[in-house]
Specification:
By secondary structure, the protein is an alpha/beta fold. The protein has two domains: 2-117 and 272-314, Medium-chain alcohol dehydrogenases, catalytic domain (Quinone Oxidoreductase, Chain A, domain 1, Alpha-Beta Complex); 120-247, NAD(P)-binding Rossmann-like Domain (Rossmann fold, 3-Layer(aba) Sandwich), CATH 3.40.50.720. It contains seven helices and 15 strands. It has helices at 42-50, 111-115, 118-130, 147-158, 204-212, 255-266, 283-291, and strands at residues 2-8, 16-22, 30-40, 62-69, 82-86, 94-98, 102-104, 138-142, 162-167, 183-186, 195-200, 214-222, 244-247, 274-279, 298-302. Strand 1 and strand 2 form a beta hairpin. Helix 3 packs across helix 4. Bound molecules: NADP nicotinamide-adenine-dinucleotide phosphate. NADP nicotinamide-adenine-dinucleotide phosphate binds at residues 41-43, 119-120, 123, 143, 145-149, 167-168, 172, 201-202, 223-228, 248-250, 290, 293.
Length: 320
């Protein structure tokens, strides 16, 4: 048997196209997930373009759906459980997920919202944690208009920090003040006081500028590099009272932190801003919008092959 999926193909737009692939076979500690919604990340596009996910392989990382086969070793959720997962090969009608890579989703949280959480939400949660987030710290989030950025702004504000959101234009900053940003800046030129934490999604010159505004003892977490530009540090800019620039990657087990994110959504403490929402058949359109800085927040794909729509309760967020 085969399933419909989105596979890497460097010869087509955004290097991803639909294809039939073999039905996934679960290992003993894996469930089979029927994917209802998946979110598209900058990293997925990079994976396809660079060959990190090889041609012909199924793309995708973020999935939300329903367990259709429980793990053979008896761990993890039962058949019928709604879950969110971070797993390789998420863009498929069915995929396998290790039980350490998923969390149950309560009925009060719709699966479209859940699908937006894994990669971006975990990056925001874990980079803030690694930076030593506490209340009253001054936290700068660059690329705050995007997926990681909007989660980081909310999570830092929720912890009682003074959050400064940096975006590319006024329109890109829409909703960030309501999300908890005390200041929304266009670029960093108007940042007038040092910050304790930087969550940097942009890299390049903006990383260098952010580093110059990092207070002694501060932590800059290099999460992403959407600018694609090199960072050139002026001589001696890394000399002085100790502060750190730390590389970041989502790795290890995700279940516990996914559960935290889902819980925050259920409590109304975390919103998923969805700036693009549509069929996975239009993945190239979503990719162009994401790379073109036209998506405020996340892009979510409906896995709706052959006109099949998932249950209405999956969807409470309207496309914008
Ligand atoms: N290390 C990890 O484990 C990890 C995990 C998740 C994400 N990431 C990386 O973190 C970065 C942010 O991810 P995301 O999901 O938040 O991406 P996103 O939704 O596309 O947001 C990225 C933001 O970067 C800003 N940006 C600045 N210069 C840009 C340019 N030249 N081209 C495109 N965007 C530009 C954009 O904001 P403005 O338009 O307002 O300037 C955009 O909103 C990406 O590089 C991603 O690959 C890494």
């Amino acid at each position: 048997m085969s399933v419909r999926a989105l596979v890497v193909d460097p010869s087509v737009s955004e290097s991803v196209r639909p294809a039939d692939v073999p039905d996934p076979v679960a290992g003993p500690d894996q469930v089979v997930l029927e994917v209802h919604h998946a979110s598209l990340n900058h990293g997925d596009l990079n994976d396809a373009r660079t060959g990190r996910v090889p041609p012909g392989a199924v793309l995708g990382s973020d999935a939300a759906g329903v367990v259709v086969q429980a793990a053979a070793d008896g761990t993890g959720p039962a058949v019928g459980t709604r879950v969110v997962a971070l797993t390789a090969g998420a863009f498929a009608e069915r995929t396998t997920v290790g039980v350490d890579g998923l969390a149950p989703v309560p009925e009060s949280v719709d699966l479209v919202t859940a699908a937006a959480l894994p990669v971006a939400g975990l990056a925001a949660l874990r980079s803030l944690r690694a930076a030593g987030l506490t209340s009253r710290k001054r936290v700068l989030v660059t690329g705050a208009s995007g997926g990681v950025g909007r989660f980081a702004v909310q999570l830092a504000a929720h912890a009682g920090a003074h959050v400064i959101a940096s975006v590319g234009s006024a329109g890109r900053g829409e909703g960030l003040a309501k999300a908890g940003a005390a200041e929304v800046l266009i670029g960093l030129a108007d940042l007038d006081r040092p910050v304790d934490i930087v969550i940097d999604n942009v890299g390049g010159p903006q990383l260098v500028e952010a580093w110059s505004m990092l207070a002694p003892g501060g932590s800059l977490q290099s999460v992403g590099w959407t600018s694609g530009q090199p960072a050139t540090f002026p001589p001696y800019s890394t000399i002085g009272p100790a502060k750190s620039l730390t590389s970041f990657v989502n790795e290890g087990e995700f279940a516990a932190d996914l559960a935290i994110l889902v819980q925050l959504v259920a409590e109304g403490a975390l919103r998923t801003e969805i700036g693009w929402h549509g069929s996975w058949e239009n993945v190239a359109e979503a990719g162009k919008a994401l790379r073109g800085r036209q998506v405020n927040g996340k892009a979510v794909l409906d896995i709706d092959t052959h006109g099949r729509r998932h249950a209405a309760e999956d969807v409470v967020v309207e496309p914008r």
